[in-house]
Q: What sequence folds into this?
């Protein structure tokens, strides 16, 4: 797995990686930005002579406690780029957002729960239950 969106690293992804990862900084924690990055990764694969469907796609998604430090609001936002917004909402809403990543070809999601404490991890459990329920 290689996690990068820079052109030189994407050349290496296309040539050598089994899977590619985008971090929430790269996607601005939005499934809509996965679509844009998918095109960039596909182009790198085509340039290297690789079928893009042979590269697994993964992302890291940030979920944050509403009562915690909102450090993401202090991050610089380059001109024209969306602000980073953590995944929040009811368990059903959060599960639906995570399912949208799958519809965009994401095979695996790495969750970053902030802050990482037993309480926030336990609070995320209903989201996982909602995902299981949705799969049937």
A:
């Amino acid at each position: 797995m290689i996690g990068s969106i820079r052109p030189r690293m994407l050349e290496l992804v296309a040539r050598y990686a089994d899977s590619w990862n985008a971090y929430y900084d790269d996607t601005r924690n939005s499934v809509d930005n996965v679509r844009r990055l998918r095109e960039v990764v596909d182009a790198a694969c085509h340039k290297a002579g690789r079928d893009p469907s042979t590269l697994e796609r993964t992302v890291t998604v940030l979920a944050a406690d509403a009562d915690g430090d909102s450090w993401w609001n202090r991050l610089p936002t380059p001109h024209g780029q969306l602000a980073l917004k953590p995944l929040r909402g009811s368990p059903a809403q959060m599960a639906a957002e995570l399912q949208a990543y799958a519809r965009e070809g994401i095979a695996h999601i790495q969750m970053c729960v902030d802050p990482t404490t037993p309480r926030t991890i336990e609070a995320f459990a209903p989201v996982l239950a909602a995902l299981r329920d949705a799969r049937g």
Summary: The two ends are 30 Å apart (CA to CA). The chain has a mean pLDDT of 91.
